[in-house]
Amino acid sequence: MLDCRSHPNFDDLCEMKIGIVCYPTFGGSGVVATELGKALAIRGHQVHFVTYSMPVRLDFFSENIFYHEVAVSSYPLFDYAPYESALTSKLVDVVRSEKLDLLHVHYAIPHASVAWLAKQILASYGIYIPIVTTLHGTDITLVGKDLSYEPVVTFAINHSDGITAVSESLKRDTYANFKIEKDIRVIYNFVDLSRFGKKANEQFKSMVAPNGEKLIVHTSNFRKVKRVEDVVLVFDRIVKKMPAKLLLIGDGPERTAIEKLCREVGNCEHVRFMGRQEAVEEILSVCDLFIMPSESESFGLAALEAMACHVPVISTNTGGMPELNIHGVTGFLSNVGEVDDMARHALEILSDTETLSRFKSAAALQAQKFDIHVVLPDYENYYLDILERSK
Ligand code: GMT
Predict the structure, then answer these.
(1) Ligand 1 pocket member 228 (CB < 6 A)
(2) Hey, what domains does the chain have and what are their CATH numbers?
(3) Is 383 a pocket residue for ligand 1 (Cβ < 6 Å)?
(4) 335-384: per-residue pLDDT in tens?
(5) Distance CA 337, CA 358 (A)
(6) Is 185 in the pocket of ligand 1 (CB under 6 A)?
(7) Is there a cis peptide before residue 151, judged by omega within 30 degrees of 0?
(8) Helices marked H in the chain
(9) Could you tell me the strand order of the sheet in which 289-292 lies?
């Protein structure tokens, strides 16, 4: 095990071998896990991703990054292939062969309980591996508290060596919904400002807003919790007052219902469904306003990415949103479902050039607090605390 703290040149010479488990999709938890792994690799740590497919944000090669794919064999008996068993076995194998120092699992279900089982199996080989679990949101506020998962989630969180939450609000929700006997450390989500700075695609802008229309944007996984229908309704109130276009980035189960709603309210000609986009920063950077009307949102990473691109945010005041979006400064907060209030605030921001540019600058300034270089040392120090405690 490493003893980085006692090293006189800790900053330069402390190198850990970290296993990262996450969902490899466009979801916020997978994005955070992947960006964290990339940043740790740049800092000199060895990072091993253990996932069922290549993480979408792993668009970067480094001698310090390794990818281990979890293959789930199927068998005619299985209606549901036992993914948890395959992931546990892969973790046992990777920790043993790569001699990892620590496992960091993102999203409690099922990663925290899988990691706990892998840890028990490794102990039978005389190998000790500490586990850090990062709680992201719906693993606590929506899915995790469902009775079909709650006992496992409670047990797995309580048996993690370290627990982090992405906002104060999520930390409170975790204590409120589960019987947790351990400390939870808040480490905020982050953004890589070198990527999400101003990287505007002006050609794209002139194509989607040829007459200088205001560009309103929303990105999400189009799940019910995101209330994308409210985005369409807020936009409808905006476009009735000023020339504007709406860009909907992402995809998911609600997409068809949203297309239907656009047809019903009659604003389809101003709405563009962009699907999943990898260079989202190029689109965000030409936009004027981001709308996030979620029912619940533990942090709102998509809003932070917009703010990093100088885009103010109209959001609900749910979960961790008030910790990110400052009412009247970086955007506005409204109660869930209050589309008239959201539209009123949106029109206020867009009312004149001077107001819009003030909100844009404030959004960009706020995003700086969540730069990866600010947040990364919090994770490194937390890992070291856990390693030290586990000695
Ligand atoms: O349901 C989602 O929004 C996706 C989910 C995920 O884990 O992939 O996002 C959650 O984690 C993000 C990263 O920490 C947070 O920024 C999101 O706010 C959170 N989503 C919710 O709480 C609904």
Answers:
(1) no
(2) 4-190+371-390 (3.40.50.2000), 193-368 (3.40.50.2000)
(3) no
(4) 999 999 999 999 999 999 999 999 999 999 999 999 999 999 999 999 99
(5) 27
(6) no
(7) no
(8) 10-13, 28-42, 83-98, 108-123, 138-141, 150-158, 168-177, 202-208, 228-239, 255-265, 280-284, 301-308, 321-324, 339-350, 353-368, 372-389
(9) 271-275, 244-249, 214-219, 289-292, 313-316, 331-334
